[in-house]
Specification:
Blueprint lengths: L4 E5 L4 H11 L4 E8 L11 H12 L2 E6 L1 H7 L14 H19 L3 E3 L13 H10 L6 E2 L11 H4 L17 H9 L17 H11 L12 H7 L3 E5 L3 E5 L3 H9 L6 E4 L8 E3 L7 H13 L12 E7 L2 E8 L4 H4 L5
Parallel strand pairs: 1-2, 1-4, 2-3, 4-5
Antiparallel strand pairs: 6-7, 7-9, 8-9, 8-10, 10-11
Helix pairs in contact: 4-5
The site of iron/sulfur cluster has 9 residues, from helix 4.
Length: about 350
């Protein structure tokens, strides 16, 4: 008999691990889809093979990455069901992921879907009515099994068809995690990520920055937001220079390297060749705007290595444009009073 296959929405958190394992324990072949966007999980794309091996090794789960970046950047402009506490559009996010999973079902030969949602666990997206709404809007009616709360929810296709024994599913509800932890122990799962985390849209500071970016804080405008814009927003110190220009400064060597990697052709880079300090990036900068370059250079020196006293001494700053470079000599550090309001 052909083995029944299911696709799981896999966040990598304990609940999604348990959901996959619960269903796999009933002889179903589970393929876990880890959706990524620049707001969560994007770094995994750098080495998908490793992610797959780790997931298999640690949890015995077959997994793959699905990049949702493009549509997700659009979704954040105006999610139909609004935002949670921060800039997290959880209901629309889940509908979006489920729709994609639903589309992939045929291609992957899967007969139903799984999520690790637990009824009543989160105020916004996991109340009974909301679970039903998400399922309906995603076009997954009856084909979405939530194994951790299945006993508290109406039977779904895999249970009705006898592919899954409902009695061997669970009835977890609410925020407590006792049941899940006991099940993890039973399945020998000890190494799993802490609950929550991983989605920057729920991080108060980063989410506020992203929200302001979407609201048009910078002169470059929110119309053509790219994946790299978002990745840049998540590192370093950000400034909105006069005129709305966007400047990012690295706070350490790692961020400096990331900033240099994320540079695009119309960006310019600033740094002090003779002294350690931040790498700065002026996004989509006007190369001929000397006033702007001078302000950016003043910030680079301000956050550069200090010699004596509370402010660094004047320093030389190199500005690299796509088609050339120039040096500004003896740049005076900007005084804090000048730029405090520019910090984003
Ligand atoms: S926390 Fe982030 S990833 Fe999770 S549902 Fe909400 S928006 Fe989506």
């Amino acid at each position: 008999m052909k083995q029944i296959k299911a696709l799981a929405l896999f966040s990598g958190g304990l609940d999604s691990i348990l959901a996959c394992r619960t269903v796999a324990a009933q002889g179903i072949r589970v393929c876990a889809l880890k959706f990524v966007t620049p707001f969560f999980g994007h770094e995994l794309l750098a080495d998908e093979e490793r992610f797959q091996k780790d997931t298999q090794l640690k949890y015995g789960i077959e997994a793959e990455l699905v990049d949702l970046s493009k549509g997700y950047i659009e979704l954040l402009r105006k999610p139909a069901h609004g935002f949670g506490k921060n800039f997290n559009p959880c209901i629309d996010c889940k509908i979006f992921m489920l729709r994609r999973a639903r589309e992939l079902m045929e291609e992957r030969g899967a007969s139903f879907l799984i999520t690790g949602e637990v009824r009543g666990q989160r105020p916004m997206s996991q109340q009974f009515d909301t679970l039903q709404l998400i399922e309906k809007k995603a076009g997954c009616h009856n084909m979405l099994l939530r194994p951790l709360s299945a006993k508290l929810l109406p039977p779904t296709l895999p249970e009705q068809q006898g592919w899954i024994d409902r009695e061997r599913l669970h009835g977890f509800a609410g925020r407590g995690r006792k049941g899940q932890l006991a099940l993890a122990r039973e399945l020998g799962i000890t190494d799993f990520p802490a609950p929550a985390g991983g989605c920057v849209l729920t991080d108060p500071l980063l989410a506020a920055r992203i929200e302001r970016f979407y609201a048009g804080m910078f002169i470059i405008g929110p119309e053509g937001i790219t994946v790299d814009d978002i990745r840049l927003l998540l590192i370093g110190r950000h400034f909105r220079l006069p005129g709305g220009h966007w400047l990012v400064l690295g706070r350490n060597e790692k961020e400096n390297s990331r900033i240099a990697e994320l540079r695009k052709v119309d960006d310019c880079l600033l740094f002090m060749p003779e002294r350690s300090g931040p790498m700065a990036l002026l996004r989509r900068a006007d190369a001929g705007n000397l006033e702007l370059a001078a302000l950016a250079a003043g910030l680079v020196v301000r956050y550069g290595q200090k010699n004596e006293g509370s402010l660094p001494l004047p320093g030389d700053v190199q500005i690299e444009y796509t088609d050339g470079a120039e040096m500004l000599y003896g740049v005076t550090p900007l005084h804090d009073d000048v730029f405090q309001e520019w910090l984003v």
